[in-house]
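Hi F.,

I've been meaning to write this up properly since the lab meeting, where we talked about keeping a consistent format for the predictions we share between groups. The idea is simple: the sequence comes first, exactly as it goes in, then the structure tokens exactly as they come out, then a line or two of notes. No screenshots and no reformatting. I'm using this chain as the first example so we have something concrete to point to.
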Amino acid sequence: MRISDVVHAKPSQDVVTISPDATVRELVALLHEHNVGALVVSDDGATVTGIVSERDVVRRLHSDEAVLDAVVRDIMTSDVRTCSAGDALTDLMQTMTAHRIRHVPVVADGRLTGIISIGDVVKNRIGELEFERDQLDSYVHQT
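Output, unedited:
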């Protein structure tokens, strides 16, 4: 299974991005509006400058209540792990586990083409397991 298979199975391939100069308050509004846990930070909507998640906000909010008025650049992760459409899903699963990350942008030729969340990975894996179960059940109950 390839990353492209998972991206194409998503209800929408749109990736919500936010400017590094946007406020954290704007970030929280976008996370809520799109019901997502992370946004790709991008200067132009096509290149990956960073990534920022709910977790980044919460961790900063604990020690600094004024973080909501800060800019996204101040709390984002700039060393972003990315993948490409042709990568194996199992490799991405290992990367997500090893680096304890839940969202990975999909990039082709330096351009943002999608995003994979841990939820997408789990949904895909459950689908694979259900298919295998159905195949085994069918085999066992053949007459």
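Notes:
DSSP finds five helices and five strands in the chain.
The CA atoms of residues 25 and 142 lie 59 Å apart.

If this format works for you, I'll send the rest the same way.

G.
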